[in-house]
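User: Teach me something about this protein's shape.
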Amino acid sequence: MDTRKKIQETATELFMTYGIRTVTMDEIAKRLSVSKKTIYQEFKDKDELVSEVTKEMLEEDICVFHQLEGEAENILEHFYKVSKYMRTRFNKVNPSVLFDLERYHPKAYQLFKDFKEKHLKDTIRKTLEKGIELGYFRDDINPEILSVLRVDQMQLAFNISNFPMEKFNFGEVQGQIFDHFVHGILTDNGRKIYEQYIKQS
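Assistant: First, the predicted structure itself:
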């Protein structure tokens, strides 16, 4: 593994665990047992490093979404597997990460906003539309509106003033919010099938 890749992986681990703002370049260098100069030879500054870390994580999410879609037997299994993946993902993320991006790293935050608009909302909307066609989701829901709602729900869980870290598990918060969302859109038939996937997990 090359030096740049090692720096990115270590920075990702530290950022996701402790938040972005609290992790310094000195701490990243110390974890890698290299000089800070070595890091600056690969990345101009912390802002560039944060952007690269964010870009790689979002690209990984996109790849996983496509992979899960190809593996799923039907739209409900895909919906369930994506939610399971996101819970696992969020269990490893410090909730302050999104706030840190928005407040201190606008370029990286723009990458997240683009991902949210071009991938998350679009994927959710298409899934809802397909689920309605197949009779899994209620036909009186508006996929355009609920795709916006679902993405905003995901962001809501990052708000540590609502869900302080010392009181709530981040993955559990996301899971509870998602369960509330999905059970509100399922038809009776869809609920029976969906609950089978839950029992199998």
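Now, about its shape. The CA atoms of residues 49 and 167 lie 31 Å apart. Residues 106-133 form the longest helix (28 residues). If you'd like, I can walk through any region in more detail.
User: That's plenty for now, thanks!
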